[in-house]
Specification:
Length: about 950
């Protein structure tokens, strides 16, 4: 008989099967859903029971709130640890869910997800989240964390909103905050140093009207978006790559690295970027339609790359914002505080976009021009031009005042209408049109500032000046008209003059006023005129008188030239009136320069070219005479007479000779070949730098010449040879000081020479002359005048040279040849009259220049035989002294009128060195080639001479 208390075999089999299935499910970890249907803390359908059951089930389970589960769950004790991969889903809760109570209410055993897809219903966890696990927020709804949580695995926001009131709500401080498309909302000030990771879905931070700070690093592939009122401060060095968007409130950064990787974009739309420390970025910046505000907060920052977009840029805060990109943002720029520094109009945004001032400063650091319209609101505008020039052709309008600061110049050409008045605090405002400042508004020029009207006129209501006022004097023109009081407290009136003839006693009335308070402390006028002021009740009258030009001259030459110019000022008419009109525009410095350019000092270069040709000609003949001595003696080397290539300007000219050496031959065979021909090509160039001497500025010029010397000679007996030579040299000098000009010459040279010699000694003598045909072009340029005076002077020369040398042969050290000599040159240039410069043509008198100079030195040479060829190099050095002064007078007078005046050319140092080097190549006994270089280097002079020659013996 079976007992009724025992299960039937069928029931037992079913129970075993169910137990096996449950065990299989538990072991395999299949996901299960455990429903929460009430708000109690114990029993079926509670959160605690669901956690317990889910933990037993082990798998990736879901704890789902269902019907009747909305409201506050108050935990009376800590929950069992929530297992890894568990999801708490409140999406279907009929009312807002709050989990509260218990000191460590919800330990997280692993990665736990809180899911809320109900965007209209918030869920709150005020119970402490603890344990080693992490919390991930998903779904479109909101999760509010208010507890000081300690969970160590970090917090992730992958959807919806995670609302916190402190950093502690995010768990242990070492845990990361990870975003992938969600929003973190700060309900109270949050200060966090934890690391933040932004995955590709991005991150949004809503500061919701409070100020929060994240000082940890931010990394990841996503971008960061700031929304909500309040300030979000990022102070860590970050590397996230998705860029930064600021859509509301203020984003405060202390460096560019706080904005992520350096090439990540920055977008601002209706929000503020504040730099709490220096910010310099090359990232692209886009301004949304809502515009962007940049708060430099007392520090200097720079946007180096392009700023684009449809919005405007507003600058607030002290400090400087540097804009350097070719910017295209279309909404204009508003300067409300601090300074914006630019180097190009393009830095201000799209062409034609507006500039608005309300207390800010626009600072320009390069020359630039802008045609933009500019509005000056009540806060005013400061235009700071830093040592450059800013040209504004657009209209400045509005109710505010304009202040010019900085050391540069602001040029206004637009029809400006702003009503707040103008102050020149530093630098200059220059008019580019009549009434470029709004008419009948106040004008103040501070000490250190200047107002430059040029030839334009300006009407103002009141005029206050402690600085400088500049204007062009014009007959019967009122330059500055002040309808009210003109208060002048020690300022300067600086007057310029357009080209015009002014007569003694002529009056000008450049300023009219309602009344005067004070007077100008100084009046500066063009150097040639004195303007005496008379302050009448309502105007300033200036009376002109002549200033003697000689009292302005700074040198003796300038004083001499001024005597000739004074004659042109008396009843100047025609071309003379034109010249004097231009002269009247000059200040003292430029007038002195003009006198130098009018005078004939630049023509002194004719002497340099002519006497230089004498030096190179006699130097070439010195070579030939050394050859003759060498041929007759059969010596392997002989000294030259040590002639220098140029006697002008008299010092430091190189020794220009190397002897041609002949192969050793029996003397009787050499005497059989007593006739010879030679030819030498010559090139010379150099520079004489300008010099200020006691007489005045002496010309500076570069010069060159080229030509040849050829001749025939004969050894008439033992120890004596004679010859005749002729040559041609074309010279050119390009004058660059005191004015530009050119002197060209054609020099035909001729003369005879003789040399005596024995085995060691030889002496040379040359006597000759030259005819020099010059072509001169002298540019006379000053003020608005530019003329060229030309002439064709003719000159002649007498040249003589005597020298001697002695050869000392050594064993193994070559031949040492001491040399010495004396040269004399006299140049005569006939008088001439210039053409082409009108009243400034000169009638130049006859000129004579002389040079007498000695030379001493030594040459070292060595002969190397190679069968059919012989090579002889040499080097020489010496000293030379000039006995005669090289300063001379040039008499001239203006062709239009005036007396003869005399200027003096400069005198140069009388002692210097001469250096030379060269070589000879002999082929047999009848043909030889030679090359010589002579160099002359000193403080004001450089000269190079090259000789290339050939000889034929027969």
């Amino acid at each position: 008989m079976k007992s009724s208390l025992l299960p039937s075999s069928k029931s037992l089999k079913k129970a075993v099967a169910v137990a096996c299935v449950c065990e299989f499910i538990a072991v395999q970890g299949f996901a299960a859903t455990f429903n929460i249907t009430g708000t109690g803390d114990a029993g079926a359908g509670t959160l605690r029971q669901a956690v317990t059951d889910a933990n037993a089930a082990v798998g990736a389970d879901t704890l789902a709130w269902g019907a009747g589960s909305g409201g506050v769950i108050t935990l009376l004790s800590d929950l069992p640890g929530v297992a890894a991969d568990t999801t708490l889903d409140v999406s279907a809760a009929p009312a807002a869910v709050t989990i509260a109570g218990a000191p460590n209410g919800a330990p997280l055993g692993g990665a736990v997800t809180f899911h809320n897809t109900n965007a209209g219903q918030d869920a709150t966890i005020s119970a402490i989240l603890s344990g080693a696990g992490s919390l991930t927020k998903t779904g479109a709804g909101t999760l509010i964390l208010t507890g000081a949580n300690t969970h160590a695995g970090g917090t992730a926001v992958n959807g919806g909103i995670l609302n916190i009131n402190a950093d502690a709500a995010l768990g242990d401080a070492a845990g990361s905050l990870i975003f992938d498309a969600g929003t973190l909302k700060t309900a109270a000030a949050v200060a966090s140093a934890r690391s933040v990771v932004i995955n590709s879905g991005g991150a949004t931070v809503d500061t919701a009207g409070v100020d929060s700070t994240f000082s940890g690093s931010v990394s990841g592939a996503g971008g960061l978006t700031k929304i909500g009122a309040g300030i979000l401060t990022l102070s860590g060095s970050s590397s996230y790559t998705g860029g930064t968007t600021v859509n509301a409130g203020t984003l405060d950064v202390n460096c560019d690295a706080a904005l992520g990787q350096g090439d990540g974009p920055l977008v601002i739309d209706g929000a503020t970027l504040r730099a709490s420390a220096t910010l310099a970025t090359v990232r692209a910046v886009t301004l949304g339609a809502g515009g962007a505000t940049f708060d430099s907060a007392g520090v200097d920052s720079a946007l180096w790359s392009t700023v684009s977009g449809a919005g405007s840029l507003t600058k607030i805060g002290a400090g400087i914002l540097y804009l350097r990109g070719a910017n295209t943002y279309a909404g204009g720029i508003l300067l409300n505080a601090g300074t914006v520094n630019i180097i190009s109009d393009a830095n201000l945004g799209a062409s034609g976009s507006a500039v608005t001032f309300n207390g800010g400063t626009l600072q320009t650091a390069a020359d630039m021009a802008s045609s933009r319209a500019m509005t000056v609101n009540a806060g005013g505008a400061t235009l700071e031009v830093q040592d450059e020039t800013l040209y504004l052709s657009g209209v400045l309008s509005g109710a505010g005042a304009v202040t010019k600061s900085g050391g540069g110049t602001l040029v206004l050409t637009g029809a400006n209408t702003f009503t707040g008045g103008t102050t020149v605090a530093a630098g200059a405002i220059r008019l580019g049109a009549t009434n470029a400042l709004p008419a009948n508004r106040a004008l103040t020029v501070n000490a250190g500032g200047s107002f430059d009207m040029g030839s334009y006129t300006q009407a103002v209501s009141a005029f206050t000046c402690a600085g400088t006022t500049r204007l062009d004097l014009q007959p019967a023109v009122i330059s500055l008209a002040a309808s009210g009081v003109a208060t002048v407290t020690g300022g300067t009136l600086e007057l310029s003059l357009g080209p015009q003839v002014v007569t003694e006693g002529q009056t000008f009335k450049p300023i009219t006023v309602g009344s005067w308070v004070g007077t100008f402390s100084s009046i500066i006028s063009p150097a040639a005129l004195s303007l005496t002021p008379t302050y009448n009740g309502t105007d300033l009258t200036l009376t002109a008188s002549f200033v003697p030009l000689a009292s302005i001259a700074g040198t003796g030459n300038q004083r001499a030239i001024s005597a000739g110019m004074e004659a042109l000022r008396i009843n100047a008419a025609g071309d003379a009136a034109t010249v004097i009109g231009e002269l009247n525009t000059l200040d003292a410095t430029h007038l002195r320069a003009a006198l130098d350019r009018v005078g004939p000092t630049a023509l002194a270069s004719m002497e340099g070219i002519g006497l230089g040709a004498s030096g190179v000609h006699s130097g070439a003949l010195s070579q030939r005479m050394a050859v003759l001595a060498g041929l007759s003696r059969g010596a392997d080397a002989v000294s030259t007479a040590g002639r220098s290539p140029s006697p002008f300007p008299g010092v430091l000219v190189a020794e220009a000779g190397v002897p041609d050496a002949a192969p050793e031959q029996p003397e009787e065979r050499l005497l059989d070949s007593s006739w010879g021909l030679f030819a030498t090509g010559i090139y010379r160039d150099g520079r004489l730098r300008e010099a200020n001497t006691s007489a005045g500025l002496q010309p500076g010029y570069a010069f060159n010449s080229a030509g040849f010397v050829a001749g025939a000679d004969r050894i008439v007996r033992d120890g004596l040879a004679v010859g005749l030579a002729a040559g041609y040299l074309r010279g050119h000098s390009s004058i660059y000081s005191p004015a530009s000009g050119v002197v060209d010459s054609h020099s035909a040279r001729f003369g005879g020479y003789a040399t005596v010699f024995n085995e060691a000694f030889h002496g040379d003598f040359y006597l000759g002359g030259a005819v020099d045909l010059f072509s001169t072009r002298r540019d006379v340029v000053f003020a608005g005048l530019s003329r060229t005076a030309t002439a064709n002077p003719v000159g002649g020369e007498v040249n003589a040279d005597a020298g001697a040398g002695y050869d000392l042969k050594t064993s193994g050290w070559g031949t040492f040849s001491p040399f010495g000599g004396l040269s004399y040159d006299r140049m005569m240039i006939g008088g001439f009259t210039e053409d082409g410069a009108g009243s400034l043509n000169l009638i130049v008198g006859r000129q004579t220049a002389e040079s007498l100079r000695s030379r001493l030195g030594v040459k070292v040479s060595e002969r190397y035989d190679a069968g059919a060829y012989a090579f002889t190099p040499y080097f020489s050095a010496g000293w030379r002294h000039e006995f005669l002064s090289q300063s001379r007078a040039i008499d001239a007078q203006l062709s239009a009128a005036g007396p003869v005046f005399s200027v003096k050319t400069g005198d140069y140092a009388k002692d210097g060195t001469i250096l030379g080097a060269g070589f000879t190549v002999d082929r047999g006994r009848r043909v030889a080639f030679k090359f010589d270089y002579a160099g002359d280097y000193r403080s004001h002079f450089m000269d190079n001479v090259f000789n290339l020659g050939a000889r034929l013996k027969f």
